[in-house]
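lol so apparently i was supposed to do this last week
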Amino acid sequence: IASQPLRGLTVLVTAGPTQEPLDPVRYLTNHSTGKMGYAIAEAAAELGAKVTLVSGPVSFEPPQGVDVVRVTTAEDMFEAVSEAFAAADITVMAAAVGDFRVERIAQQKIKKDGRDSITLNLVSNPDILAWAGGRKRDDGSQILCGFAMETEHLIANAAKKLAAKHCDMLVANNLREEGAGFATDTNIVTVLTPGTSDPKTPQIERWNKMDKTVLAKRLMLRLAAM
Ligand code: C5P
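anyway here it is w/ cytidine-5'-monophosphate bound
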């Protein structure tokens, strides 16, 4: 049916922040609220898809009719995505995944002990989107969409990610722009897709400021058409 272009398809969405524990009482995280990813999961379900939402800790209720896998750390998120990815026809990674975690989580609360400074030794987390990009089905029947949030050189960085992570679409949003980014109801995005003649030169479309729910539906319709 025209109103349900995703009927019969499986959609996997990541959303929200991750939390990387330092000790039993503290963690590293970011300002993601999950709003964009939850709107995408909801739009996909409304358009008829079977939806799995892998979500970091957020304060929203999951959308109706969506399967939610709750995770805390980037490694947990990676595990959940690696179980669901092969079955997904369309994957949208909107989560703000922590790039680093502490090498060793302290078993007890870290104490000041009269010190003026301490050093946290951080190691990198798996790049879930890059992993997925490397394991797409050979027949091109899996569509992968990533997000990018930058504070500078937005388009250049997004173009690099589109290619390096083998995405079919990369949605770039600039943290510095009014009405875009974390915790807002609206977003302003630039949508990059691989160029048709020269894959190194992406096609770039700037979309006007719109509500995240409207944006989510447009994105899903665009991905459905792909
Ligand atoms: O490279 P960067 O982190 O800016 O890329 C952002 C995109 O990659 C987002 O789609 C995000 O969900 C995804 N990502 C990921 N795993 C990471 C880091 C980012 O899936 N460890």
